[in-house]
Amino acid sequence: MPLPTTARRARTAVCAFAVLALAGCSAGEGVRDDGPAATSSASVTASPLWPDHTAAAAPAKPGQGFHARGPVPGVTVPDGDLARVDGVRLLAADPATDRAVQSGLKECPDGSSCRLRAPAYADLTGDGKRELVLAYDDLGRTILWVYTAVGEQAHAVLEYAGRPGTSAATLGTDLVVTEPAGGRNRESDTTLRWNGSELAPLPAASDPAKGASKTRPAEDSLIKPADGTDGPGQG
């Protein structure tokens, strides 16, 4: 059906304006065909603006070269429940336990010179079962161990040697290790996360503990600081 006269006039005016606009954009050259418009596509990988300034991993600390070991010989974990395993016996049976610690364990659990803190438990692998966390306040250092149960066998998945008074707390299934860093009330935090075979430190750039506002371990920390009141034989 023919358009009304008014509509035909309006459409003619619009078309004339479009032609003039095209001519104006390419004055002296006419309308030019530059080919199909380029299509944008998302980059598969990010390209750094400054490749030589990437985030560095956290400085290496004693114990961070640890690799998960095999099962501790001669130790059975009933029903896979590490709460039913004696921590002193477990460390004594682990052939990787330091000789100085092995000797000191003879005072545990009831000796007045026992340096092993009370055992702690937390799910650090995300499988719904609790791992066993042990801490030993040796002379000049504090050593942390984490054991997980594989069936009825105990496997060490972390051994961390830190400064005296090193403590730890949980952040979800992460283990946050806190060390005195020198100076009054100063600390250094390292977050360790399960990677399928061991608890490994996160790079500094992705460590959630670095942005934490707390200056001391929370009151519900997994392992309390060695202040002479929490561990067996302390005093």
Structure, described:
With 235 residues, the chain is of the alpha+beta class. It has a domain at 78-211. 14% of the residues lie in helices and 23% in strands. It has three helices and eight strands. It has helices spanning 5-25, 87-93, 99-104, and strands spanning 120-122, 131-138, 141-150, 153-162, 167-171, 174-180, 187-194, 199-201. It has a four-stranded antiparallel β-sheet. The chain is globular.
Helices, strands, pairings?
Elements lengths: L4 H21 L61 H7 L5 H6 L15 E3 L8 E8 L2 E10 L2 E10 L4 E5 L2 E7 L6 E8 L4 E3 L34
Antiparallel strand pairs: 1-2, 2-3, 3-4, 5-6, 6-7, 7-8
SS-derived structural category: alpha+beta
- Proportion of residues in helical segments: 10-25%
User: How many strands in all?
Assistant: 8
The helix/strand series, from N terminus to C terminus, equals HHHEEEEEEEE
Q: What is the tally of helical segments?
A: 3
Tertiary shape: globular
Spans of at least 5 consecutive residues whose pLDDT stays below 50 are: 5-32, 38-64, 212-221, 225-235
Q: Round the Cα radius of gyration to an integer and report it.
A: 32 Å
- Sequence of strands across the biggest β-sheet: 1-2-3-4
Which strand-content bin applies to the residues?
15-25%
For the sheet with most strands, the description reads:
4 strands, antiparallel
Q: Quote the average pLDDT.
A: 72
Distance between the termini: 103 Å
